[in-house]
Structure formats: structure tokens, C-alpha cells
Design goal:
Elements: H1 9-40, H2 47-63, H3 65-68, H4 78-99, H5 109-131, E1 147-149, E2 154-156, H6 157-179, H7 181-191, H8 193-198, H9 203-225, H10 235-250, H11 255-275, H12 283-294
Antiparallel strand pairs: 1-2
């Protein structure tokens, strides 16, 4: 069948792999957006910039932090970056929420979108000023060098790790929010904050931590992406529109919808590149239009 279409099985498998990798990034990033919107009702337009900042902080830790501390030989390892960078960015997100976003909760949601859009432009502009737009390279960790021979194709070890790490974080987040007492407090706090606060729960702190966690997810995806894609100030801007489409298709605020839709759309995009490559750049948006016409709340969203 593939021969009749002029497609080799190896080409199909490789594009499916690329689609699964892209879908993993879509899932993690859209999950961060869904957590922030579902818990806080904030459309975080700076999410792509925060993803970019996570990748840049990993690269800075690898190439420049040694000079800053007076030890040119020192480098922040990939594993340290995978832990430290999301923590730093999560803390940075908490500062943004406390100092800026918390002042807008009583206003229309449009103000939050405009603020985060402005922050995205500021972050991207700063990194373009200091590092240019040509991009930087982050080396793949030695432990993930090479590929795994699957018989029908060679699977690069690092790309396999990206898929496993992304799925682990995604489903751990889903379990935390949907199956634990903390998640129940989070969901209840968004619907009736006064009632939850009456039970002794610090709702403002919970909101701050939630926004910080959403930003940390974006930074985590950035660290994962650094060895695969060129680390560039524009890498978030190129991706955030697609991720917003994923969130809309899955259902705004739906945790499971973001995960499943992100992975599925990555695979669909990969298949489209095989059978009709010209449509691969728009297939996700075509699906979004169809879903909005049929089910405006999204595939996993709740109709109001």
C-alpha cells in the first residue's frame, strides 16, 4: 500500500516519531496553559516566552554560568537544569502573579491577556537584545547519545527520553489535580474561594502556587526542547499559537483534554507531512475550526 503511494515504511515511522515528539511538547505546554486557565481563569499569553526562557536558562547554565562564578570549567549539568530551571521559573511566575496578575482578578479577563501578551513581548525583546536571533546550540547529554535499533527504524535515545519524561509529567499532573485532596481544593477554590477559605485553606497562596506550577511546566518543556531545537528568542512565539489551538480543541481548562489532544494532534501533524506535506502547517487549525463549529467547548470541555 505504501509503495503505491510512493511512501516507504521508514518515512512513515520517522514522521510518526517526529509527530509524537512534537505532540509531547504540545501536551506539556498546553497542560501548563490548561492548569493556569482552569484554576485561575487567566489566558497566559506569556507561556511561549516562559518556555523559551526555560530553554535559555538551561543553555546559560551549560555555557556561561561558570564565567559568572569565576570557574570557567563549571557547567550546570542537564539533570541539574531539568530540576533547577523549572524551580527558578516557577518562582519567577509566582512573583509575576503576586505583583501583577493578582491586581487584575476583579477586572475583565481581557486585561490579564493583554498583560501577559505585553510580558511576552518584553521577555522576547530582552533575549533578542542580549543574544540575537541566530539561536544557540545545547548539546545532547552523553547518556542519551546514539539510538535504539527497533528493527524497522532507529529511535534516537534522547527523543525517546523526551516522550517518556513528557508523558510522566503530564499524567502525574493529571493525577494530582483530578485524584488527590490537593487537587480537590484547587478545583473548589476556583468555583467558591470564600467557602474553601472558610475551611482554613489559604486560597491566595494556592492561586500563586498554581500559576507558578504552570510556568514551571513551560520551563520544563523548554529544558527538554533545548537539545533538539535551536535555542532562540523566537522559539516560543513560533509554538504558542499552535499550543493555544491544542487547548481550544481539547477544551479550555481541561487537563486530560490537553494531554490527549496534544499527543493526538502531534501524530496527525506527522501523518499529514507524509501524505500531504503542504497541509501540515494548517491541519491543526482546520481541526480547531471544525471542533469549534461542532462542539464550541472543545472535545473534553464542559458545555455551559
Amino acid at each position: 500500500m505504501f509503495d503505491l503511494l510512493g511512501i516507504t515504511p521508514q518515512a512513515l515511522y520517522s514522521q510518526l516519531l517526529v509527530g509524537l515528539i512534537n505532540g509531547s511538547f504540545y501536551a506539556v505546554l498546553s497542560l501548563g496553559l490548561a492548569v493556569i486557565f482552569g484554576m485561575l481563569n487567566i489566558i497566559n499569553f506569556s507561556h511561549g516566552a516562559q518556555y523559551m526562557m526555560g530553554a535559555f536558562l538551561a543553555w546559560i547554565g551549560l555555557t556561561q554560568v561558570g564565567g559568572w562564578i569565576g570557574d570557567p570549567e563549571f557547567q550546570l549539568s542537564y539533570w541539574a537544569a531539568l530540576l533547577v530551571v523549572p524551580l527558578l521559573m516557577g518562582g519567577f511566575g509566582m512573583v509575576i502573579e503576586r505583583c501583577m496578575l493578582s491586581r487584575l482578578y476583579k477586572l475583565d479577563h481581557l486585561y490579564g491577556l493583554l498583560l501577559t501578551f505585553g510580558l511576552a513581548l518584553i521577555f522576547e525583546g530582552l533575549f533578542r537584545y542580549f543574544y540575537g536571533v541566530s539561536g544557540q546550540r545545547y548539546e545532547i547529554p552523553e547518556v542519551f547519545a546514539g539510538a535504539i535499533d527497533l528493527g524497522f527504524m532507529a529511535l534516537p535515545k534522547y527523543r525517546a527520553w523526551v516522550i517518556v519524561a513528557s508523558l510522566t509529567v503530564c499524567f502525574a499532573t493529571w493525577y494530582l489535580i483530578e485524584r488527590t485532596r490537593l487537587g480537590a481544593y484547587l478545583r473548589a477554590g476556583t468555583e467558591n474561594p470564600r467557602l474553601v477559605q472558610a475551611f482554613g485553606v489559604n486560597v491566595p497562596l494556592m492561586i500563586t502556587l498554581t500559576y507558578g506550577y504552570g510556568v514551571a511546566l513551560a520551563a520544563f518543556a523548554g529544558v527538554l526542547a533545548a537539545p533538539i531545537f535551536t535555542v532562540s528568542p523566537l522559539m516560543g512565539a513560533d509554538l504558542i499559537i499552535v499550543v493555544f489551538a491544542v487547548v481550544v480543541i481539547g477544551g479550555m481548562g481541561s487537563i486530560l483534554g490537553s494531554i490527549v489532544t496534544g499527543l493526538a494532534l502531534g501524530l496527525i501533524e506527522g501523518l499529514t507531512k507524509v501524505f500531504y506535506s503542504e497541509a501540515s502547517a494548517v491541519v491543526i487549525f482546520v481541526i480547531m475550526v471544525i471542533v469549534l463549529l461542532v462542539r464550541p467547548a472543545g472535545l473534553f470541555g464542559r458545555e455551559k
